[in-house]
Amino acid sequence: MSLKPFFAKIFAKIIYRKTQVWATNPIKTQRNVFEDLIRQAKKTQFGTDHHFDQIKTFEDFTKNVPIRDYEGLKPYVDKVVKGEENVLWKGKPLYFAKTSGTTSGAKYIPLTKESMPFHIEAARNAILHYIHETRNADFVDGKMIFLQGSPILEEKNGVKLGRLSGIVAHFVPKYLQKNRLPSWETNCIEDWETKVNAIVEETFDQNMTVISGIPSWVQMYFEKLSQKEDKPVGEIFKNFNLFIYGGVNYEPYRAKFENLIGRKVDSIELFPASEGFFAYQDSQKEKGMLLLLNSGIFYEFIKSDDFYTDNPRRFTIGEVELDVNYVLIISTNAGLWGYNIGDTVQFTCLKPYRVIVSGRIKHYISAFGEHVIGKEVESALQEAIIGTNIRINEFTVAPQITPKEGLPFHEWFIEFENEPANFGAFAAALDNAMRKQNIYYDDLIVGNVLRKVVITKVIKNGFQDYMKSIGKLGGQNKIPRLSNDRKIVDFLPRE
């Protein structure tokens, strides 16, 4: 046994105490972040255009800085990409995190010398909070795997660019380098299936203690691993006890994961994005993730129900309420201002401020005014499979507005690992759960506007095949939980 676990516990205690300082003073902390952001960006092109020298209060800010998404901020980003300095933030960014856009092609999200450290520290601190709470630090002696994008970076007008996870790979602390897998060479493989196969070969005989990645892609790794060794992952990796994930809700995958692993393992949820690292699970006992109020990000919140109205009210951290669906708006030390990242959150606790990701503002079903969101379909599915042996690999939901016969309905496209014995009973349980989640949906069922949910089985690996067909297999890509149209589901291979 090395000294690493001993020193990890000491470091964890230090970080926990530092966190408590700002977490117990949230309004003051956010005010300080706000004032610092405005001060540092006063002389930028954006700051000049939006009269930052006149901004003294949040009210001043809302009058001068409208809410924008990437399309709205793109004229400024384009200048940064062309190599101009002092546009959105002082100087030039260190990196661009390159992501795929819907209407604008590739999106280039700036990462600056001020913002980059917070991406690294947040992931580290999530693990340290786990150590502080559980007193479990033995895993630091084992091998850790992080399923991520390629670390190979391009360059554009003097600024390096790549996937966020690939950029972060360049900042792995030295004390973790010997423990970290896969190898640099394997991490550089672009084709996801080839990469996962290589990772299996590199790791199957190692002492893996921590595994991290988006659940759907970790599941693919676990399946290949189990097939190779013909036994559960928990027997292959006897000391594997911590799963770290982000990007999607783990609950729909939990039953499948526990079956693949052969036992339960602790998990830590993260809320990272190219635009910033927003939250992490700081407790195994409490629901939600700690919102990071001291990480160079000023947060605003707009109620989802009001988002598409004229001039919706913009709330600060001291004004939010529990269990309300908010669109998350950020201003950051990477030069994003009044920026809508597209995610919606709900607060589960106000002391300290903890959130869950409830969905995407553009990912919903409201073909009949029901406005069903991602959290609701995930919660309904979770309730429907409780106490059963049903296991789900992947799913998505879309409306069927013009069926060949009968009333319209919500159609659930599900890839089962273990199917229901009685599909009719399962569909009824799912529909009842949805009616409890969303009163508008319940009204439509009661009023005979919609009929109960219809389940369509997707073939084995059907979602993976679809993602591969559109060039989005692996990395940070994921299937939307629901859509207001059938652009995705019409291409899913079904039984």
SSE layout:
Layout: H1 4-23, H2 26-41, H3 45-49, H4 58-64, H5 70-81, E1 95-100, E2 106-111, H6 116-134, E3 143-146, E4 154-156, E5 159-162, H7 164-168, H8 174-177, E6 180-181, H9 184-187, H10 192-203, E7 208-212, H11 215-229, H12 233-236, E8 242-246, H13 251-261, E9 266-273, E10 276-280, E11 289-291, E12 297-303, E13 326-332, E14 339-350, E15 353-360, E16 364-365, E17 372-373, H14 374-385, E18 391-400, E19 409-418, H15 423-437, H16 439-446, E20 454-457, H17 462-469
Helix pairs in contact: 1-6, 10-11, 11-13, 14-15, 15-16
Write a brief structural summary.
The protein contains 17 helices and 20 strands. The termini are far apart.
What can you see in these coordinates?
By secondary structure, the protein is an alpha/beta fold. 36% of the residues lie in helices and 23% in strands. It contains 17 helices and 20 strands. Strands 6-3-7-8-9-10-11-15-14-13-12 form an eleven-stranded mixed beta sheet. A hairpin with an 8-residue loop joins strand 10 and strand 11. The termini are far apart. The mean pLDDT is 91.
Q: Given the structure, what is the number of helices?
A: 17
Largest sheet: 11 strands, mixed
- Mean residue pLDDT: 91
Which blocks of ≥5 consecutive residues have pLDDT under 50?
Answer: none
**Strands, count:** 20
Going by helix content, strand content and strand pairing, the class is alpha/beta
Instruction: Report the span from N to C terminus.
Output: 52 Å
* Beta fraction: 15-25%
Q: Order of strands in the sheet with the most strands?
A: 6-3-7-8-9-10-11-15-14-13-12
- Rg computed from alpha carbons, rounded to a whole number of angstroms: 23 Å
What percent of the residues sit in helical stretches (DSSP H or I)? Answer: 25-40%
Shape type: globular
